[in-house]
Amino acid sequence: MKAIRRFTVRTVLPEPLRPLGELASNLRWSWHEETRELFRSLDPAGWRAAEGDPARLLAAVSEQRLAALAGDRRFLRRLTAAAEDLADYTTAPRWYQEQTDLPAAVAYFSPEFGITWALPQYSGGLGILAGDHLKAASDLGVPLIGVGLLYRHGYFRQSLDRDGWQQEHYPVLDRDSLPVRPLREADGSAARITLALPGGRTLAARIWTVQVGRVPLLLLDSDVEPNQPAERDVTDRLYGGGSEHRLLQEMLLGIGGVRAVRAYCRITGHPEPEVFHTNEGHAGFLGLERIRELSREGLDFDAALESVRAGTVFTTHTPVPAGIDRFTRDLVTRHLGDDGELPGVDVGRILELGRETYPGGDPDLFNMAVMGLRLAQRANGVSTLHGAVSREMFAGLWPGFDPEDVPITSVTNGVHAPTWVAPEVLRLGSRQVGASRAEDALMAGGTERWEAVSGVPDAAVWELRRNLREQLVEDVRQRLRASWRQRGADDAELGWTDHVLDPDVLTVGFARRVPSYKRLTLMLRDKERLAALLLHPERPIQIVVAGKAHPADEGGKRLVQELVRFTDDPRVRHRIVFLPDYDMRMARTLYPGCDVWLNNPLRPLEACGTSGMKAALNGCLNLSVRDGWWDEWYDGENGWAIPTADGVADEDRRDALEAAGLYDLLERQVAPRFYDQGRGGLPQRWIEMVRHTLTTLGPKVLAGRMVRDYVGQLYAPAARSHRAVRGEAAVELARWKRRVRQEWPRVAVDQVETVSVEGSVGDAAELGATLTLRVQVELGGLDPSDVDVQLLSGPVDTADRLTAPVAQSLKPVARADVEGRHTFEGPLTLDRTGAFGYTARVLPAHPLLADPAELGLVAAPPEAEGMTAGVLR
Ligand SMILES: *Cc1c(COP(=O)(O)O)cnc(C)c1O
To answer: How confident is the model at residue 813 (pLDDT cuts 50, 70, 90)?
Structure first.
C-alpha cells in the first residue's frame, strides 16, 4: 500500500519543523495570510511552483533547505507563533460558546465544497457557498460537521481551441497530495461505509477527513477495493453521467453520509448532530437513512418521519427547474425497493415523499426538492426575493394557502471575508482601525467597525484601487498568453498580449457559470455599441470575462465561443478578454481588481449570487439587474441597477431592452463618474461610492452574518424541535396528524357574524370602532384545542380581496351546539381608513408544529359568503 505523501513528508520533516505538517493540513491557511506568508518564506520559488498549496510545497522542498530552516531561529520563532495561533483558533471559546440552548452539533450536507483551489471539489456558487459556510462556522465556533463526496476528477478544467470552442480536461486528482486524511478505526484500519445495491451488489466507500479550521469535513470516496469498476466510478466526477449515476451519487451522499457521520462521532467522540442541514436537494436521502435508523429502533414510518423532520433544515438554491434533480419512480423503486438499501422502510411511502402533487406535476417523476421540503420541518431560500419566489414556486404543495403563507423562509447568503478580501484591502483597514479590529470586522461584522472606512483618505482609497487593478492586468496578460499558447499560437505572434488592458482604464468584470439565464452574451447584443464603449477616446472601458459551460450544454459552449470570437478581434482585443478556467484562484485576483462587477441574469432566476458580494468587499461597485441579493441591498448609492423588462414576455425583446439599459448606464453614468477626476486627479464621487459600498454592504454580506442567522432562525429552533419530537412524543404527534388529516374534510367555517359594536359602524364605519366577531365552525371529530380559528382582517382591493391580512386567534366561547358547531369569538378594532374587510379560517394547531401551514390544511368559508367588507373613512 502506498503511504500518503504528507505522511512521508512528515517523517522527513526535521523535528523542529514538525508543526509545518499541521499548518499545511488544516485548510485554515487558505484564509490566513500570515500562515501563507510563512510557507512562502520557506521557499518563494517552490511556493510559486506549488501554486500556493502548502502540501505540494512540503512534498517538493529540498532536504538542505529544510535542514537550514531547522536551524534558523527567526524562522522557528515564527513557526512556533503560527502553530500556537492555530491551536488557539481551534480550541478557544468563540461566539457560539457564549450562547445557550444551541445544538450540540449540526451536520451540513452538500454535493460540492469550494474551500480552496487546492481541493477542487466545486463547480460554482453552490460549492463555494458551502465552503464559506464551513469557514464562517469555524470562525464562530459552530460545531458543524461537513459531509460531501471526494470526486476523483473534481470538476473539469477549461481551455479553448483555436476557434474558441470550450475544451474540457479531467485531471486525476492524486489523493495522496490532497489535503485529506483517511478516517481510521481504533485498530488503524481505514473506516468505511457500505450501501446495498440491487442484485446483491454493494457499494463501499472510504471516508476522508479535511480539517477546515475547527470544522471537520467528511468526504466519501467510492474508488476503493473491493468495489467493481462501475461502483468505483460513482464518485468519478461532479455533475457528470446519466440519471442512475446521479442517483447513486446522491444515495452515497445522503445515506452513506449519515453512516459516515455516525462512524466519525463513534471514533472521535464528537457529539452526535441534533440538526441535519441539507444544502440543496441532492443530499435529501439523508432523511430516509435517519428514518431507517429510527425504524430499526421500533418507530413506525410516520413517527420516524416526524422525528426526522423536526431536526432537519432544507435550503433550496434555485428557481430554475433544470437545477432540480428528478428521477423516474421506477429507478427509485429499483434502488430503494424491497431488496434495496433501506430495509424496513416502505418504498411506497418514500415515493410519496418525492411526488409532485401540485398542478402540472409529473406523476412519474420523483422530485428531490419536493422530498427535501417534506423531510424538513424548516426550509429556506437564499435571499429575500428568492424566498418569495420559492414560496410561489412550491405553493402547490400547500394547497389552500396563499404563497405568502407557504412555510419557506429565507436567509440571505454571505461570503467569507477572510477568504475573499485582498490582503491589500485588509492592510489598509488595519492601518485605520488596528489589525485585530479589522480582522474582527471581517469575521463578525458589526456596523461600527465598518464605519471606520469612512476615515480612509481619498488618495489612499484610489491608490489601493489602482494597485489592485494593476495586479489584475498583470494576471490577465499571463493567463491570456498561456491560453493563446494552448490554442496553438506561437510566441512570436503574441507580442500584443503585453499591452492588453491598461491599469488606468475603468475595468468591468463578468465571471460566472454559463447557464442561459445568466446571459453571458447580453453585452454583445449590439456589438458596435459595445465596441464604441471599449474604444471611447476619453472614457474607455475594459472588460474581463470568464466562465465555464457545463460539458453537456452545447448552447452554453456556443455562447462562450461567440464571446471568445468577439474578444479575438484585433480591433478590440486590447480592451476585452476572455480568460479560460474560471476558479477560486482566478476569482481572488479578479474581484478586487475590477472597478465594476457586472451581473445581468434574467430576473428572478438568480437565487442570490455571491460574486458581487465578494467584489463589494474589495471596494468594487456592482452594476446589476435587481435580482437575488442586489434586489435587497441596492440603495441607489452603492452601485447601479440595470432596469429590467420583467413584464415583457418576448425574451428577445426583453434582452434588447435590458442590454440597451446596460449600455446607457455604462455610457452616461458609470464611465463619466469614474473619469470625473478633479482635484489631485481623484474621482471624488466614485471614491465616495466605494466607501459607501464598504460601510453599508461590508457588515451585511458576510458569511459570519449568514451563519449566525442560520443558527438563530433555523438551527436552534430545529434542535429544540428535535429534542421535543422523540420516541413517544413522535408517535403522539404522528397519531395527532393522522387524526387531523382524517377529520379535516368535515371541518368548515359556517358563519362569521358581528355580535356587538362599540362606536359607529355601517357601510362607512368610524375609526376606532370595535366589533366583536363570532365565528361558528364545524370540527368533525376534532376538539377546539386541535385548531386555531383565526380572524383575518385588513385592507381589501376593488374585488374585495384582502391584500395584506393580519391574522388573530379567536377564543372558543361555547361547547358544541346540538348540531356539533363550535363558537369562537374575538374583538376587531378598525384602526385603518380605506376599504377594509374581514373573514375567518381554521388551521390545525399543535405546540410541536413549526408553522400553521405545515400540514397544508386550512378551512375557509365559501368564497361568496366569506368576506365582509366596508369602507372606513
Ligand atoms: C463566488 C464564486 C462563484 C459564484 O458566483 P455567482 O455570483 O453566484 O455566480 C462562482 N465561481 C467562483 C470561482 C466563485 O468564487
So the answer is: very high
pTM higher than 0.90 = yes
Asked if residue 834 is part of any domain, the answer here is yes
Q: Is the CB of 124 under 6 A from ligand 1?
A: yes
Is the model more confident about 300 or about 767? Answer: 300
Between the CA of 472 and the centroid of ligand 1 the distance, in Å, is: 17
Distance 580 CA to ligand 1 centre (A): 15
pLDDT at position 678 is 84
Q: How remote is the C-alpha of 194 from its chain's centroid?
A: 29
Looking at 216-300, list the stretches that DSSP marks H as alpha helix, in order from N- to C-terminal side: 229-232, 243-251, 257-268, 286-296
pLDDT value of residue 445: 67
3-state SS, 396-430, equals: HHCCCCCHHHCCCEECCCCECHHHHCCHHHHHHHH
Distance from Cα 583 to the centre of ligand 1, integer Å: 8
With a 6 A CB cut-off, is 512 part of the ligand 1 pocket?
yes
Domain count within the chain: 4
Q: Please tell me the distance between residue 512's alpha carbon and the centre of ligand 1 in angstroms.
A: 6
Q: Residue 86 falls within a domain, yes or no?
A: yes
Q: What is the mean pLDDT of the chain?
A: 93
What pLDDT, on a 0 to 100 scale, did the predictor assign at position 240?
A: 85
Find the helix or strand (DSSP H, E) in which 811 lies. Answer: strand 811-814
| DSSP assignments along 723-737, one per residue | HHSSHHHHHHHHHHH
594 in any annotated domain: yes
- 207 in the same domain as 313: yes
Q: Cα–Cα distance between 155 and 579 in angstroms, integer?
A: 17
> Whole-angstrom Cα distance, residue 788 to residue 858?
10
List the domain range (segments joined by +) for residue 759.
Answer: 740-872
Q: Is the CB of 582 under 6 A from ligand 1?
A: yes
Whether 158 is in the pocket of ligand 1, judged by its Cβ within 6 Å, is no
Kindly report the CATH number assigned to the domain that includes residue 811. Answer: 2.60.40.10
Share of the chain above pLDDT 70, in %: 96
Nearest to 827 by CA among 777, 759, 746: 759
**Dihedrals phi, psi of 31, to nearest 5 degrees:** -125, 15
* Dist. CA 124 → ligand 1 center (Å): 5
Closest C-alpha to ligand 1, atom 3: 125
- C-alpha cell, 315: 435550503
